[in-house]
Amino acid sequence: MGKIILVVLGLLLVYWILRSYRRRVGRSDLRPQPGAGEDMVQCAQCGVHLPRSESITTQGGFYCSAEHQRQHQSH
Ligand SMILES: [Zn+2]
């Protein structure tokens, strides 16, 4: 009897892992692709264009990285 419960628990665990894995994959598919209809912004430090969701947004503008944000604000 105890063995059956272990098997059932094992199957439930596998099912749960597969379900959460599939959900993670589905979610990444829903993410907007960079450059596909997304707002492009320009780094205030180096001028590179990048999707708004990947930029660092401050009151002063957009930056491609925290490094450039620091460089720009230290001037
Ligand atoms: Zn930059």
Structural key phrases:
binds zinc ion, two-stranded antiparallel sheet, 2 helices, 75 residues
List the helices and strands and how they pair.
Blueprint: H1 2-30, E1 40-42, E2 49-51, E3 56-58, E4 61-63, H2 66-73
Antiparallel strand pairs: 1-2, 3-4
The chain binds zinc ion.
Short note summarizing the structure:
By secondary structure, this protein is α+β, with helices and mostly antiparallel strands. The protein has helices spanning 2-30, 66-73, and strands at residues 40-42, 49-51, 56-58, 61-63. The protein contains two helices and four strands, in the order H-E-E-E-E-H.
- Rounded to an integer, what's the Rg over CA atoms? 23 Å
Mean pLDDT: 85
The assigned structural class equals alpha+beta
Number of spatially distinct domains: 2
Order of helices and strands: HEEEEH
Strand content: 15-25%
Quaternary class: single chain
Ends distance: 73 Å
Notes on the structure:
The protein has 75 residues and is α+β, with helices and mostly antiparallel strands. The chain has 2 domains: 1-31; 34-75, no CATH class. 49% of the residues lie in helices and 16% in strands. It is built from 2 helices and 4 strands. It has helices at residues 2-30, 66-73; strands at 40-42, 49-51, 56-58, 61-63. The protein has a two-stranded antiparallel ribbon. Strands 3-4 form a two-stranded antiparallel sheet. β1 and β2 form a beta hairpin. The radius of gyration is 23 Å and the shape is rod-shaped. Bound molecules: zinc ion. Zinc ion (ZN) binds at residues 43, 45-46, 48, 63-65, 68.
